Amino acid sequence: MTLHEARIGKYYEDFEPGAIYQHPFGRTISEADNTWFTLLTLNTNQNHFNADFAARAPYGRIIVNSGLTVALVLGLSVIDMSQTALLNLAWTDIKLTHPVFVGDTVYAESIVTDKRESKSRPYAGILSCRTRGLNQDGEEIISWNRTVMLYKRDAPHDKGYFPTAKTGPMQP
């Protein structure tokens, strides 16, 4: 019987500068998502939750909270870029280039811009990438540069965390 340990994601060694990752999931933003995130973060700008107020603004409708857009695009990128991360080191040059509305579906893609060994942690490397979010029409809605510290394949820190069943191994 072959055991496939709980593991997902790429390690430092798996990345090469210039590689582009189209992250596999898209996510449609609902009114509840936007309202919940806006209330959770105490963002009191009415353009995010008051349809009557937002109708008078230039776009004429509720705009999705930009913090939600950042969080969503970041989350969409994790499966490829930082599933094995131990630290986020930086986000720079965040640009919100197109409004996002309730009902939009968001996608993300990243390009590896650089990588180097960690000087302080021999079990890790540092990856730099540029990530952007796209809506369903292909409009770029957001972009940034990100630096993250990833485990190397032989790092022990992300291995062996799955619990051992008290009843023993699974049986067919």
UniProtKB/TrEMBL annotation:
It comes from the Bacteria. InterPro entries: HotDog_dom_sf, MC_hydratase, MCH/BMMD. Pfam families: MC_hydratase. This is (R)-specific enoyl-CoA hydratase RipB/Ich. The lineage of its organism: Bacteria, Bacillati, Actinomycetota, Actinomycetes, Streptosporangiales.
